[in-house]
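Continuing the series of single-chain predictions for the mutant panel. This is the parent chain; the variants come on the following pages.
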Amino acid sequence: MSTLSMLTSTTSSLTRRRLIQRRYLSAVSREVNARNCRFHVLHKNPDAPHQILCLPGSLGTASTDFSVQLSNGIGEKFGLVAIDPRGLGQSNMTTDGKQFVREYPSDFYLQDALDGAGIMKALGYNEYSVMGWSDGANAAMHLAANKEVKDAVKKLVVFGGNSYVTEEDIEAYEAVRDVSKSWSERMRKDKSAAHGGLETLQILNDRYTDAMRKILYDYNGDVCLTELHNITCPTLILHGALDVICHEYHAQYIAKHITNSKLEVLKGGKHNLHMKYADQFRTIVGDFLTDSQENNYQEDDDEPQPDIDHIAYGFMGSKSLFAALRVGIFDAIDSVDGSATFNDIETACDISGERLKTLLSACVALKLIRRRIDENGTDLFHLPKASSKQLVRTSRQYWGDYLSMQVDGQFYNRLADIDNTIKHGTEASHGYESWFDSDPEAAKNYTKAQHNGSLATAYALHKRLPELASDFPSMRMLDVGGGSGAFSIVTSRVIQDATAVVLDLPNVIETTKSIISEEEESVRSRVSTLALSATDPGSWENVQDESFDVVLLSYVSGSIPSEALAGLYSNTFRALKPGGKAIIHDFFLSNDGRGPPNAALWALAHISVNPTGMGLIPKRVINILSEQGFIAPRVHELIPGMTKVIVAKKKNV
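Parent structure:
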């Protein structure tokens, strides 16, 4: 059967248009020419001051997906422009009169986004809001992010959308591929009528399902992972708590990475929440679109105020912790069965008198140590769980050396002159490479101090990204700026056939080799080193093209000059095999720059060494990665409230 015959319906296009006009009363059915296609549009309240472009879901049309809103509206101030997407419903003809069935190119979401913008421009609207459901939500996010058209978008409302697809999603699509067997009679009837018959509907569904498989396997599931970070307009994400088609983690991910967004979950809502809970939907969306941008930024009287005293005196607390570590108070208390007396601590630490009492009191006040008084009036000290795990040398989770040697011994001193560095930049500091070249002992201490903390973080990374072991069972990893080699060591411990190369500065690599040599033969034989600067694009000549499955950059991006990032990521891309992954781990602020506090403080600390570095937010790093050719950037939290991981992929051949 020809494409034209499959498009022919027993009901003429004109008759269908008349039926639609009768059904929606105030919604005007019109044809709009844009981007070489004749689009069918249902337009409600065309003279309203605030127009809303409505983008339907997969295989959806204006009438099938927004019938309730076209009947009831959002409010008197709002007009609705609901469209049949290109090649669906009555938008099945080019501007020169040729009929066609919808195709699904790899960028079909962007295509739908630009089509929507083209329709609004053709209608004469220079500013409007966008509302998208399901697949339409994905297209709406592309529209609000695209630099060519985003300035026209006042506000964005999305529900039932997803920024990426998974194997689980593909299984769900495949389960409903056969429309005659797996679709409900009502859905099959409605969609068949909208698209000109069952055969055409099946063709469309096959093409759509194939397109989603291509997105997963060719683009690592990337629907709009980069675009999320470039949306700046106020955004409302709605989600039905009972939605079994699009799970809540999709809505949470979208809300987390769009600046100036908020998420509302409707407890009884399903995927079609705008139909089932139409009145509640109308109120929520109407209120959001009516709310002025200025009101969003007025300070709430109940908003917590900064504790200036706590901030100002915080350095004294830090020094109390560092001093207690250096004199061995935590080890002394831990060495005693039960609770330790003052005499026990005094003897073990070889400190006497009021100085020890004062330091103990500071640690007790900070809750680093617990104190109680027994029936004889004797002070007894013991450690809370956190202190026992993290501050006692015999604990596997001990990282006290990192705190005392690196945070206190190095960064604390450098921060003493931070105001001068902020004022004068490169005049006050010359970066990590210069620092370590001029002070080999500092490089040695920095690397050793980092090791214990990095081991724990490396294990956390593999726990967060378990797919690394299954995707690359014989992984070859380049550990850029790998320092002590902790991540390479843990990778070799966790993945039996993995090999790793630690790339770092010559002064650092000498210490790295020493640390690696202490590992068992089965591990150290699979970890090698490469001494060179990661920040000089030309210095990667010793790294063979397309020779690594994974390139890890932990605490590197925030430690080098911002102008070096593009070259670093370009070299990373070059070093990866097709299908390989780049892993960027660092102190990241959220895209709105409001926190978390510890990430913000570490960013400030890095200025003391790297005054020309970039303040890292996912948006900035992801855009640079995208410019170098990476796809599907996913953001994960690693150390809660402090570090994030961005995983991006080099496309398969």
